[in-house]
Amino acid sequence: MGNCCSNYTGMWRALREGNYSIKEINYGGADATVLRTNIGVPVVSLLDQTNIRYVFDMDLVEKVPFTLGNTVLRPAVLGGHCPGMLSNGVEHVRRKKFAMAVIQRSLTNSLFSTMVEHLHAHTSMWATVGHNIYDFEDRVNRFCADVVSKIVLGTTLPYDSVRAWQNGLQSHRPRVPTVSRFRAKSHALRALPVLLRNIRNAPAYEEIIQLGKTCGLTEEEATHEVLYTIVGHALPQVQNPLLSCLAAYAAMPDLDRRQMWEEMNKVLHNVGTFTEAVLDSMKCVESFILEVLRLRPPMEFFFGRARKDFVVKTRDREAFQVHEGEVVCGSAFWAGRDPTSFRVPIMFRRNRFACAGSEALRGSLIFGRGPLSFLPSTENHQCPGLELAMGVLKPSMAWLLMFCKWKLTEEPKWSGKKRSRCGKPDNPMGMVTFKYYPTDVANYYPLPGVTPSNKKGKDNSPNVSSYVSSIL
Ligand code: HEM
């Protein structure tokens, strides 16, 4: 499928084929790693570790305001403010400086204790329902929304407004006006003032606005930047990987699940307290999360527009000409499956990033707009949220594996074709059973009103979670 394909045909193909719509599988020969295709807009897709780096080069590729390739952020839903993530030049520099300062500020707060408080509250509620939790994804999304907004703003945002605003934020290109999209937009427009009011009333607001002033942002600009960074970006980027992690854990072979659970249990027993430091010692948890981000990236495409003509020098073809103004689309999905960087890339190997010599692999894991080892600055578009994201994902995973026991309603399966699932399994995840053991937590972390079970080291039956047809 070349450039000649109409935008509508391209859009339908992209909806049907997802990550496969930007690649042509050449059975029997090597796949092309750069090609022109249409996913609703004509794009040059960059599909391996070497080529994807062109989209990160700010001298060659620029952002298009309010636009992410074949999706557009609705300016009205953003109150007319284009986020720093989609800006260039001076505008990007001052907004990125501000975002980095806000994130840094939230990391110095009591992140871990906030996490534990919210994990305890939310998992208690899920366990009260206990069976047939078909809205499990929504519950996890609510938990992430509560905890991230509490960490950054010092208050939780009303979840219904968060969800309505997120749902109506984007529209597809080319535009297909439907009643449901019109409704989503109007709900989002109604949620906007509610969210802004809650941000303005947040305990951290004054401090955040001061940070904005030092970065040259007016109060209104800073408030909208926080809204997009937190609700529009950070939340989905934490919500989706957390769900993908649970699904990936359940989908692992029984032996792997048991071994991972035992490794974590051993560290916890040895140290005797549930702290951030313990999580750092659980190397298997970090490696597991990174492997999920590699194979199931929550943001699969990176877009930009060529500032000038340039040549992509590929491994397989000598040169590929990109013209000024063309949309380029780097694929984290395909770069994460590049066999020159990852051995047996389609296999989920939970210890891939924990083995000896795996440090170098981090330079190949595309995390934000660049490899994991690429430091964020105002001179690039690399995501500055890694530490915060890990600060949420690591304790959540440890908690849900060590102190809870659950069964998914079905075996998680990923076709790679459902882009709207952002790395989660194709079908929505539900829970057949969900149990939570607060007295086990109390053995390692003081919970108000909960007496420790004092079974440290006695429990030989692993609390291993899974999906319904699994034997564990
Ligand atoms: C696993 C979690 C996360 C992933 C996978 C992720 C991914 C990304 C990606 C791919 C971009 C570049 C987007 C583009 O250029 O099209 C980005 C940028 C950004 N991320 Fe994240 N993100 C995550 C978590 C967070 C968190 C928790 C925050 C903080 C609150 C955050 C803040 C930002 C900001 C401010 C940018 C804009 C950087 C710039 O344009 O210079 N991210 N992220």
UniProtKB/TrEMBL annotation:
GO molecular function: heme binding; iron ion binding; monooxygenase activity; oxidoreductase activity, acting on paired donors, with incorporation or reduction of molecular oxygen
Record keyword Iron present: yes
Record flagged with keyword Kinase: no
Region annotation (Disordered) ranges: 452-472
Pfam name, any one: p450
Any coiled-coil regions, as ranges: none
Compositional bias annotation for Polar residues: 460-472
GO biological process annotation, one example: sterol metabolic process
Cofactor(s) this protein requires: heme
Domain of life: Eukaryota
Keywords recorded for this protein, A-Z: Iron, Metal-binding, Oxidoreductase
Family, as annotated: Belongs to the cytochrome P450 family.
PANTHER family: C-22 STEROL DESATURASE ERG5, CYTOCHROME P450 26
Protein name: Hypp2506 protein
Lineage start: Eukaryota, Metazoa, Chordata, Cephalochordata, Leptocardii
